[in-house]
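Sample entry (372 residues):
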Amino acid sequence: MSRTRLATAKRLVVKVGSALVTNNGNGLDLAAIAGWARQIALLRAQNREIILVSSGAVACGVQRLGWGRRPKNVHEKQAAAAVGQAGLVEVYEAAFSKHGLHTAQILLTHDDLADRKRYLNARSTLNTLLALGVVPIINENDTVITDEIKFGDNDTLGALVANLIEADALIILTDQQGLYTADPRKDPTATLIHQATAGDPALEAMAGGAGSRVGTGGMITKIIAAKRAARSGADTVIASGHEADPILRLAGGEAIGTLLVSQTPALAARKQWLADHLQLAGRLILDNGAVNALKSGKSLLPIGVTAIEGEFERGAAVACMTPDGHEIARGLCNYGSGEARLIARRATTEIEGILGYIEEPEMIHRDNLILG
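Predicted structure, serialized as tokens:
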């Protein structure tokens, strides 16, 4: 049934890794890019909407600049990304134009999705491009990223884009056949996992940590991306980009690769945005009474907050922490950090007397809060 769901999916996000885009760092693989463009054009002719998330800018820039290896210096990486991104989008535009399709280049950082206004603007732009029949090509903005704002990998970016535009499925093309029970390069008994549940802790345990039993090809990031994409109801399939016409076959419901099925009801848009925050503005430390209140579906009141960490303004996204330091929820705080410190541990009836006004009776309303 899940593969049937892929066959009927109207909106797909396709992520291609740099090893595929650049033929393992040997320059842009023009034949592969032409093949993806042809497959996507055929899907567009079926009135299906496709967004392409493509790595490869830094690798392309390194090749264009004639450097023998990928630089370690951050500014050289950013320079390579700037040179490479120009070449990357030029090749994509040429490939899609042969099929009468326009492309749009969109470069994102985490800040673009962490800010509510920019998040909504990005969502509106992508929806408009899709309505116009344009193929958006998205990459992380490597020319300006720092450790604080980078997504970390384009698997994560693909999942965030899937959530942003409420895609039906995320297709991650890689240089492996899919997710295996062990590293097939080391264990001859390893078998391909054809289907599993996105977010299953056993998958992360299998792929993470020292002595990983899954290969070193970044499978852990793909498993986590599938878990993230599942929050908006999107299934994820991990498959080899070296297969013949993999996008068409996957979109047709063919059983190749590993399908990670979403079994989570889609979150409301505002809560989805909260769930996708990779960095938060601050932390509220709660007492056990407040923790239990949140678990039962109630709002967070000031009296249940024992401490505030960080500096933030009203409306900022913050983490709600248990007394022993675990995140239980995140939400939009009705008060800035300075105000929050003044009313923490105080009853709602005291807020106006302390601040001289009252914005809201709750520190975080339950409609603006999502449990972790």
